[in-house]
Amino acid sequence: MPVTVPRDLPAAAVLEAEQVFVMSDVRAAHQDIRPLQIAILNLMPMKVATETQLLRLLGNTPLQVEVTLLRTASHVSRTTPSEHLESFYSTFDEVADRHFDGMIVTGAPIERLPFEDVDYWPEMTRILDWTRTNVQSTMHVCWGAQAALYHHYGVGKHEVSQKISGVFPHRLTGTRSPILTGFDDEFLAPHSRHTDVHAADVEATGAVDVLAVSDEAGMYLAATADGRQVFVTGHPEYDADTLALEYRRDSGQGLEVAVPAHYFPGDDPAAVPLSRWRSHGQLLYANWLNRCVYQETPFAPAD
């Protein structure tokens, strides 16, 4: 089944070329079913790339999904054309009276800043509070996960001596959760961040279960028992070359950055990297949509 997007969204052409089932909003209006209403708060600087990555995952399930792209009003993007934002994005105030079946809060390359120093932090806290009443299940990714754990549960982040960048093996902790259905006992996933949250701090909340961890990269996946809040500290949505692009960008700026771990064949930055986490990413998002959103949300949307 398709993910429904505006007809002119650039990601639509890319996904159609990959044979991902996308449907224009015009055609979807004639379908006699209720699609899942999913909001994406896109905080990443390269918004078009992130849209494509997330829509690729959302479009690979038997469920019809209608996406609303959101941006912060209190921060002006310098890397995405204003025309794109005005054409395809809404601000939080424009949707604050709506209810959504699911929501994705992306990461942002600001993890070294104290949360209160982020220019849109007051707006971010309003959105996070709103998700608890107006969204059935919210998936928080990377900095989005850190922000939500801090705001909702007081879990702090810790700066690391060297950027956590690469593709790392993870293992399940043994805590059962519907979002883990079909997971291998060990799986790979990418990380790209300068800060960490400690699994022990998350478990100490008594409200969030740690579901998967990495010996090298730390906590990866956590969730509340009811599935209404999911926290992913890595980037299962990344393309095969995303870490390479980040590494070359940082190296080109003269920054001292390590080669992403377990990523390039032979640890050679000149080699072409392979995606070894795609199936895990597809399964994670499919489980979230099915187990945490579709099976829990009422057919009739809330007023």
TrEMBL record:
Active site per database record: C142, H235, E237
Q: What class of enzyme is it?
A: transferase
The reaction(s) this protein catalyses: L-homoserine + acetyl-CoA = O-acetyl-L-homoserine + CoA
GO-annotated molecular function: homoserine O-acetyltransferase activity; homoserine O-succinyltransferase activity
Name the major location.
Answer: cytoplasm
Q: Where does substrate bind?
A: K163, S192, R249
Compartment(s): Cytoplasm
**Listed GO biological process terms:** L-methionine biosynthetic process from homoserine via O-succinyl-L-homoserine and cystathionine
| Keyword Protease applies | no
Site label Important for acyl-CoA specificity, positions: E111
List the keywords (alphabetical).
Answer: Acyltransferase, Amino-acid biosynthesis, Cytoplasm, Methionine biosynthesis, Transferase
Q: Which GO terms describe its cellular component?
A: cytoplasm
Presence of keyword Acyltransferase: yes
Biochemical pathway: Amino-acid biosynthesis; L-methionine biosynthesis via de novo pathway; O-acetyl-L-homoserine from L-homoserine: step 1/1
Q: What is this protein called?
A: Homoserine O-acetyltransferase
- In the UniProt record, the gene name given for this protein reads metAA
